[in-house]
Amino acid sequence: RQAQYRALRDKPCVTKDGCNIQLMMNAGLTIDLPHMVETGATGIGLFRTEMQFMVAPTMPRVSDQLALYRTVLNSADKRPVTFRTLDIGGDKVLPYMRNVEEENPALGWRAIRLGLDRPGLLRSQVRALLRAAGGRELRVMFPMIATVEEFDQAKKLVDLELTHLRRHGHALPERVHIGAMLEVPSLLFQLDELLERVDFLSVGSNDLMQFLYAADRGNTRVASRFDPLSAPVLRALKDIADKAQKHGKPVALCGEMASQPLGAMALAILGYRTMSLTPSAVGPVKALLLALDCKKGSEMLLPILAQPVGSVPIRARLEEFAQAE
Ligand code: PEP
Ligand code: MG
What we know:
- Its main location: cytoplasm.
- This protein has 325 residues and is of the alpha/beta class.
- Helix content is 47%, strand content 12%.
- The chain has 15 helices and 8 strands.
- It has an 8-stranded parallel β-barrel with strand order 1-2-3-4-5-6-7-8, surrounded by 4 helices.
- Helix 6 (119-132) crosses helix 7.
- The longest helix is centred in the middle third of the chain and has 20 residues, at 148-167.
- The model has no long low-confidence stretch (mean pLDDT 96).
- The structure holds phosphoenolpyruvate (PEP) and magnesium ion.
- Magnesium ion binds next to helix 9.
């Protein structure tokens, strides 16, 4: 198996009917970087910047952040890297930061909420990102966006930092793509407004599923009651892909779902052309997608999603379909 996956490493991920799919990888520390070449991932679809903060004994300085981001961009060479701004707070407590006790940390003061309320930290991170990407493209996205106003505020902060760097004569990125993670269900009902604003979207299916089903993602007792390959989730994902296409904005998915071959197959069928995976999943997912006929898949899946929920066992149908491919 491993040898088979290695043989696919440099092969583009194109389905049988010609759909080109970018299989990128998730990363967060320099030790992850060699996986890009090893797996043939076409970029980093999610760089979790909080990792550097979580492994450090003290708050990383702007120069430490800048050095890491530069290393990441250098090692990716020309391949795209999407940096996610700090997703800390809630249960991701940093030993050197004052801990705020919360009843429901997953729903609490975390990620972009903390970033906008205490903008010093977010601004210095954005500054490090902009400087690291001087002369090249920067892709940055914000976690846990729940309202379009939050996205506007976060984007404004990037503009402020750009102005600041320009005034001080620093080399600026060639282009800055600013995106949002879609992981809070409130965004599902303001997709048009969101898509008008963003340069790209990336679905965080781990959190999106946790909040859609109100089931703690880390608690197997409740998390395993819900299947990502269920009509409510797949309908939501289809809606996102369709609306993104209508607005001409790229959409990716970077949650665990894309690392499951069957999940990735469903995503390709629904129209997702970029996914970001756990490095070890790139080979198995590519092997399945190379054998997939997206059009046949949508002829199978879309009618099922239009049926009353529960009338068709979706996972079983997808398994059958994958077997037959
Ligand atoms: C997600 O929520 O799906 C995601 C990719 O981000 P994280 O797992 O870091 O919350
Ligand atoms: Mg998340």
